[in-house]
Give the backbone structure.
Amino acid sequence: MSKKANMIGKKFDRLTPVEVVGVKRIHLIYRCICDCGNEVEVLGNSLRSGNTKSCGCIRRPNLIGLENEHCIVKAKIKNQMWEISCKHCGGIHIQNQREIKNNAHTRQCEKQKPYNWSGLEREDAIIRRQYGISMEQFDALLEFQGGKCALCSKPIDELRRRMNIDHDHKNGKVRGILCSGCNTGLGQLGDNVEGLKKALYYLENTPFDEYANAR
């Protein structure tokens, strides 16, 4: 043990053993001081082989004070999440280590917009792109329908996430606002008049009734 204990006081990368605190199988366990100031217990063979080089601070760098184009790192929150001071809006935001090192601006900043930002609210931009109408037109059409599904008259004004803008798949023309059930039903019937006529004929002339009358 005395021969191996000569490791005390020697430098192994960022670690310096200061005392033996135990034994695991045949290997001594050393209490080590890391260059960052933290203490850690390490097996002697791990120190000699170089498998353990620090208390873990190499993998978990201290970013406090780091400055890039968009922010200054103020404090560590947890794991790889850091509190930053935004240079654009002056606000305090949370950003992960990778984003900070890659000089990425935070999405929480009100003054930072994506490169493809259209100047419209997200929902407005989506329906303009997909259906060719604005959010204002959507709201006006819904009001014109009395806040109800144009097909079954189910009230849907409080279930906006379940509303569907029905449109002609051939020319893209908007037809109305439907509930999910009616919109799906139209699609299952072919989304055309012929399909609806077939469904109507089926309901008025069911095969079982025709079968029963033929007997």
In short: The chain has a mean pLDDT of 85. The chain has three domains: 4-49, 61-112, 122-204. The beta strands are 15-24, 27-34, 39-43, 71-78, 81-86, 92-96, 163-167, 174-179. The longest helix spans residues 193-204.
